[in-house]
Amino acid sequence: MNVKALILILLFPIASWAQGYAGLGGSAEGFKRPIPGHSFQFPKDHGPHPDYRIEWWYLTANLKGSDGRDYGIQWTLFRSALKPSETTGWQSPQLWMGHAAVTTPDDHYFAERLSRGGIGQAGVTAQPFEAWIDEWHMRGDDLDTLDLTASGTGFSYDLRLQAQGPLVFHGNAGYSVKSADGQASYYYSQPFYTVSGTLHLPDQTIEVTGRGWLDREWSSQPLAEDQSGWDWFSLSFDDGDKLMAFRLRGDRGDFTAATWIDPDGRTTPLPDGAVGFDPLETSPIAQRDVPTRWRVSLPDRGIDVVVSALTPKAWMETRFEYWEGPVTVTGSHTGRGYLEMTGY
Amino acid sequence: MLLSIDHVQKSYPGGRPVLNGVSLTLAQGQTLALTGESGSGKSTLLHLVAALDGFDSGEITLDGQPLSPLDDAGRAALRRNTLSLVFQQFNLIPSLTVAQNLSIHARLACQDDPGWTSHLAERLGLADLLERYPENLSGGQQQRVAIGRAMATRPRLLLADEPTGNLDETASAVVLELMLSLVADTGAALLLVTHSPEIASQLDARAHLSGGRIA
Amino acid sequence: MIRAAAQVLLSHWRAHPLQLVTLLTGIALATCLWSAVQAINAEARASYERANAQLAIGQFDELRVPGGFIPLPRYVALRRAGWQVAALLEGAIRVGGRPVRVLGVDMVTYPALPAIIQVEQAGTAPDPSAILTAPGRLLMSPDLAPLFRPADGFPPVLTSTELPPDLVLTDIGVAEQLLNRRGQISRLMVLPDQPRGVPPLAEIAPELQRVSPSAQLDTAQLTDSFHLNLSAFGLLSFAVGLFIVHGTVGLAFAQRRGMIRTLRALGLPMRHLIWIVLGELLLMALIGGLIGLVLGYFLAGALLPDVAATLRGLYGAPIDGQMSLRPAWAAAGLTMATGGTLLASGHALWRLAHMPILAGPGLQAWGGGKTSARITGALGLALLALGGIAYVTIGGLIAGFALLAGLLTGAALLLPLLLSGVLSILAKQVRGPIAQWVLADMRAQLPGLSLALMALLLALAANIGVGTMVSSFRLTFTGWLDQRLTSELYVTATDDAQGAEITEWLTPQVSAILPIRSTELSHESGPLFLYGIVDHDSYRQHWPLIAEGPDVWDHVHNRGAVLINEQLARRADLWPGDVLSIPPGHNLPIAGVYSDYGNPTGQAIVAMSLLDQIIPGLPTRRFGIRIAPGHATELAQTLREQFKLPSSAVVQQAAMKSQSLAIFDKTFVITSALNVLTLGVAGFAILTSLLTLWTQRLPQVAPVWALGLTRAQLARLELFRSVLLAVLTACLALPLGLILAWVLLAVINVQAFGWRLPMHLFPGDWLGLFLLTVLAAALAAALPAWRLLRLPPATLLRVFANER
Description:
The complex is a heterotrimer of chains A (344), B (215) and C (804). Helices cover 4% and strands 56% of the residues of chain A. Chain A is mainly β and 344 residues long. Chain A has a single domain (3-341), classed as AttH-like fold. Chain A is globular and about 50 Å long. By secondary structure, chain B is α/β, with parallel strands linked by helices. Chain B has a six-stranded mixed beta sheet, sandwiched between helices. In chain B, strands 2-1-4-5 form a four-stranded antiparallel beta sheet, with helices on one face. In chain B, α5 (139-151) runs parallel beside α6. Among the domains of chain C are: 59-215, no CATH class; 370-483 and 658-804, no CATH class; 489-626, no CATH class. In chain C, the strands form three sheets. In chain C, strands 11, 12, 13, 14, 15, 16, 17, 18, 19 and 20 form a ten-stranded mixed beta sheet that branches. Chain C has an eight-stranded mixed beta sheet with strand order 6-5-7-4-3-9-1-10, with helices on one face. Classes of the chains: A mainly beta (344), B alpha/beta (215), C alpha+beta (804). Chains in contact: A-C, B-C. The A-C interface holds A 1-4, 6-7, 10, 27, 82-83, 89-93, 95, 111, 114-116, 119-121, 132, 134-135, 151-156, 200 and C 72-73, 75-76, 79-82, 84, 106-109, 112-113, 116-117, 120, 125, 127-129, 131-134, 136, 171-174, 176, 182-183, 193-197.
């Protein structure tokens, strides 16, 4: 393990629990905790919250290429604070990590970037909005119109995003509970982006269009100690409805939560147990078995769908490894979406 | 014939011929004394028979084997297996004990017979001296060890070069008697170089070298 | 048959145990000294590699600003353009009088650091937040840790045995405070995976130079000549050891002639005999070699710390004092032992193979007679000529050593002839019968002793030569330090702004402030450091010029001329009147050449104004300060307090001088150690020769005793004989040693280090060495003499009794 691996443990608290790394429980001290009834202030809350331990700007998009094939992209900026403050210079306690990926029906390209705050190599400003690490950025006057770029060995993309609907708030008006013990985060999304732009792959350049989904979340203690991983779904049905649903797997049982999003942006929070998650098929990836076909059901809304990975290869072989890739939805409803699975 | 020497000539570089057509024969079990003046070439002839040195012409045949075609290894094998040598200066190996000296020739020839060697030691009166080193022996004792070493291989032919030349009279007599009796017992032939007519008279026959020829 | 014959041949050693010990000692000594040197070299080279691997250095291209630093915003700009680079800030500080290299890396983006992994595996894993945020952590080897006391304001220390010595590894955020260089970056490492579509460097950061790993200054290359020097020493010791082997094997074969003849008469073929003897020699070589390896391992372990100190001081090479056992080293040592033994026994084997079975009685002298002395003499002359030819025709360091090898072996081979000549001249001068007998006897014994005397000659010459070189070097170095370090104080400021502040503050208090600006350039002969200086008497009066044109300082300050150091002058063959070309497109006339010891790289000095033209905007961070020496300490203290400078940033002249000399002295510790050992081996060679000759002495001594000399007289003569031969050899060794010193100073040093040193003579040292030689010879003869003194008359009588 090197310093960078340790940094990742801080960035991804779940990784530390999954890998049995102890001693981080107390480090949430001094950090603020999310409380119910928080009133969000924009654009300020699009920017970073250094007094919370972790935070992310997480964008995924399902795209269709001019060649008729399906593509998915991921652009993520994680922030992790060693201390609840910010200073200028190298010794800033704010650490940043970027993940970017392009998934095609038969391949997966990804890259990872690390930086610290305080020197300008990575960061987020709310007005005008910009989130960046190295040359990657997600930038616009506000969150409704964004330019998005990232590149890695062998790939890059350059996309424009236009929001077609309002922000949506998960849980109790943006207070999203993560366990029966009450661990929670602030969590809102912009799931209504239309996307267009260009993907550059090793031997081709593809014009793409499609739909994007941005998640904003920050917290200081997002998971309970027994929780070892999660399965997170963002599904956009062809009829305009959307569903965000996650399952946190724990020794003391799973905890689920979901948000039903109407085409106009009205949300309905769904309580623990409302959505059913059943792995149907696993694929061997990176010496482990990862579920790449799921049955997701929400009887209240007549949802009973099979969610299948565009390709099982969407494994993020970053220092903390996880699966993140585009999915297609069949069954009672059809559509597309993104699936994230950690802790396998 | 065990040994036949046929018109052998030998000269040293830059000198007159030492041997000038010597012919001689020796049968199995026969003892022959080779006498002559100092410098008559009797030691040289003995060395030729022992395959220690080469000759210019003629032939020496030992046990049916002509010597002239032999290389170093062949000559060494002949010395190891067919004949044995007793020198005037004993030539024992100073860093070996009497027992080791006694058996060394037999061991080199791969025909070590401990029973026979200890019999020889007994017979030569060396039984109490086996663990001593040569430097602690008298001349007569040393020569008895040399005779034992030579006889340990039961040679077909024993070559002795003035074996008593370094010994006083008493020791000489003992050594000569032991040597002759052992030769007789084993049926070996003996070619003995001496300048003493007395010693020569104790052997079966006598050949006298003079002017490079057998007189 | 082979078994029986082998038993006979080996029984000789049981009868002569001392000879066996001597032979094995000879092989062991030769192997020991050679292997020790090899182990040291291997250890040093492994250290360099390990250090580079631990710090992930020398694997990637680097970006640099020639002569300056990279500002932090430039790094961020490169990053934001997509360049995957890792920042690194490097510098030196002095802690507790010890120079320590500080390596600050951006722990977040730097490639995996094995050194850190080791720290993490050792017990408590460091908390990354502790490493990355204030006050941070310092990583260093355990022996350095006590210097960094938290009370002195240092951050907490983490230790790792994997870290190179005298190095502090830390996060760049800590390093910039420790080095007082906030916002500065020394170099950027270009990481292996660059993203798609990165703009070219020329567009976004044209001032940065990209340097490939092969062009980075490599410790291994820097220290090559040092290791070659050590190897040459090891080889010399090996050769001296082989003299013992040659002597003993020769004697053992001579003594076994009778035995061998008898064996052949008993029917042992020559071919078998040769194989058995070869097998015996191999066995001896292996046993002696193994003993030598063990001894060499410990010797190397004992010498390594000083060598390590030398290499760190001279080249900043990362080497610690730890030894490890390498199989390849052991194999090489045994090979050398075997090869050396066979080489030393070749002559004896050849004679054995050509020995007739029948030969006259008696023991021939084994060193050869008069003819043999003439032949070896001729061979010696030929080797002298060959060495000279090699030097003239090949050139380079190898040729320098060829010249040395030819000189030493040639002179050694000539020795018997020369000694014999001297003795025969002496014999004609003396009158007394005893003196005549002694001299005649000595000449007769000469062949048997000549090899030991050759070893003594070589050891003495090496001692004189190397001693003269080291002492000359030290004298020159001391004088040079006095000339070169003229300022009483040397100050290093954080940056240009602080430099200006310090200048302003100091101006009313001191007699002169001499700003120094420098930059690193590349020249066709290698890296070149260009310095700018102001016009001041300190330079005009003291700068150590070894070659100069007319009005050298006026040319430098008014006509754009340059001074270059001796290393550059010799490497590029540039002298006053020539032109130095430096990028971009400057051609500067060379006004003079100055000596610059202890620095492996090229250096040039120009007027400050010219430097500003060549590289505008260089910061002025270093100053020499002239002040009355009595006030230097006080001013240094005030400076540190006034500007919050770390103690390493203000250095006094006296401290600098004493530290430089300390490093110098450590440099030659191993040289003197090898010198003493070589002399010891030579003394042992004389002892063994005298002891082996002892067996042949009695027949020669007995008649003299019978003629009326007492045993006490004979014993005294025995001592006298040994001492006289040693003295004669020492007299011949003196000129040889001086020639050797000249070759070392004027040829080897120039090739290895790039400087030529004036030769100084040290007769006091010679006298000491001479006395040591006499003592060694007397000691070597003491045992035979004592034996002679205690010899029962009966033994002498037996000489006559044995004449049968």
